[in-house]
Design a protein that fits this description.
Length: 238
């Protein structure tokens, strides 16, 4: 469904762009980009671990956060049809809580995803651009439980690894840019993207949480992919 949506957006954007009369546009400027976005991440092995916790505790519902929203910031340079940027973003998986049928055990989970990237876009016609980002994504969060038997959870071993939770990613993207003034670099930008993790992150052995489920025998490294959509204000500096 995510890929179908992204493909549909691309076709819609192309129709809008190429239905307009072709105009030669020359923009050479720098800008700050400030945005808000929605993210729908998939962490296959990590999600299985969270489902195991829910099943073990007999929770009525999953504690995997259903809503992931965030903000982004980037500095960009545009030279006619080519655009380069460096930026970062923070997405919060809003805290999800559930209890067992007797309401004696409760658990909750919130997540935090930090993105740092370098990006390139090409304006292929009218307002339409396509491109990609290369960067790193850090997966973090907070797992809490109250009332579970003491033999189910244990404190996570300490780790001095500053890169735990990180994966490397490539992010194909496409969207539309609407300048506030003709041939200006200040405007409104809509972007759809699909974040493809090209490595896995360790979430259990040196866990990203303070506690972990004892004696978990499933996979302890997880993949990461995410569909997202962003709306941003571009503030031109020239």
């Amino acid at each position: 469904m995510k890929r179908i949506f992204l493909t549909g957006l691309l076709f819609l954007a192309a129709a809008v762009a190429f239905s307009q009369k072709s105009k030669k546009t020359s923009i050479e400027a720098k800008a700050f980009n400030i945005g808000a976005f929605y993210l729908n991440p998939s962490r296959a092995q990590f999600d299985k671990y969270i489902n195991t916790i829910s099943t073990t505790l007999g929770l009525a519902n999953t504690i995997k956060p259903a809503t992931n929203v965030g903000g982004s910031f980037a500095f960009s340079i545009r030279n006619n049809k080519n655009e380069f940027e460096v930026g970062g973003a923070l997405a919060i998986g809003l805290r999800q809580k559930s209890s067992n049928a007797a309401n004696t055990v409760t658990a909750s989970l919130s997540t935090k995803t930090i993105d740092i990237h370098f990006g390139y876009c090409n304006y292929v016609g009218g307002p339409l651009f396509i491109g990609f980002d290369l960067g790193a994504v850090n997966n973090d969060g907070k797992l809490e439980q109250v009332g579970a038997p003491s033999n189910l959870f244990e404190a996570t071993p300490g780790s001095s690894n500053p890169f735990k939770g990180y994966i490397f990613s490539v992010k194909p993207k496409a969207g539309l840019f609407f300048p506030f003034k003709s041939k200006g670099y200040s405007g409104f930008k809509l972007t759809a993207f699909y974040d493809l993790g090209i490595s896995k992150y360790q979430f259990y052995t040196n866990d990203i949480f303070d506690i972990r489920l004892k004696n978990y025998t499933g996979e302890t490294k997880s993949s990461y992919n995410a569909f997202g959509a962003q709306a941003a204000i571009v503030v031109g500096l020239d």
